From TrEMBL:
Residues 15-138 form the Activator of Hsp90 ATPase homologue 1/2-like C-terminal domain. It comes from the Bacteria. InterPro entries: ASHA1/2-like_C, START-like_dom_sf. SUPFAM superfamilies: Bet v1-like (SSF55961). This is Activator of Hsp90 ATPase homologue 1/2-like C-terminal domain-containing protein. It holds the Pfam family AHSA1. Belongs to the AHA1 family. It comes from Actinomadura litoris.
Length: 165
């Protein structure tokens, strides 16, 4: 990895490592907490994974390769746009699942981000997705509204004020 931006997010979930692993790797479950996408792969090292829309359009917004799969403790993938060529290679996402009693510490590390804009984007995206994942595993339901909607509204307000953060 180069000296590109990195994003790290840690959350604690009332679940077993096996439940978290299943939620990260089962396409039907991912479709619930990613809202408009799912994650599809056989999750074997070297296999491709895709992040297709669930609207039936067949559009795949992200692709990558499974770099490491050690159920139920660690999953590492590359992540990039389907036709994106990045001089420093694709982004890399690692999911570390650490049990502690009857809870799990889930750490998501997204490395080799292309630039500041991608860092801003994933800094809003990952917390939203992981909040939905946590809610789903702990209550059986995702949040009543998409957390990313709040970010989109805040971003629109900032842009209206000419504040590009």
């Amino acid at each position: 990895m180069s000296d590109r931006p990195t994003f790290v997010y840690v959350t604690f979930i009332q679940a077993t490592p096996e439940q978290v692993w299943h939620a990260l790797t089962d396409a039907d479950v991912t479709a619930q907490y990613w809202a408009e996408h799912s994650n599809v792969s056989d999750w074997q090292v070297g296999s491709a994974w895709e992040h297709p829309r669930t609207d039936g359009s067949g559009i795949v917004d992200l692709v990558g390769t499974v770099l490491e799969a050690a159920p139920p403790r660690k999953l590492m993938i590359t992540r990039t746009g389907p036709n994106e060529e990045r001089p420093d290679g694709p982004g890399q996402v690692t999911f570390d699942i650490e049990p502690h009693g009857d809870i799990v510490r889930l750490t998501v590390t997204h490395e080799n981000l292309a630039d500041h804009d991608e860092h801003v984007s994933v800094s809003a995206g990952w917390p939203s997705v992981l909040a939905n994942l946590k809610s789903l595993l702990e209550t059986g339901h995702v949040l009543s509204q998409g957390p990313w909607e709040m970010y989109a509204e805040m971003r629109a307000a900032r842009m209206a004020r000419n504040d590009p953060r």
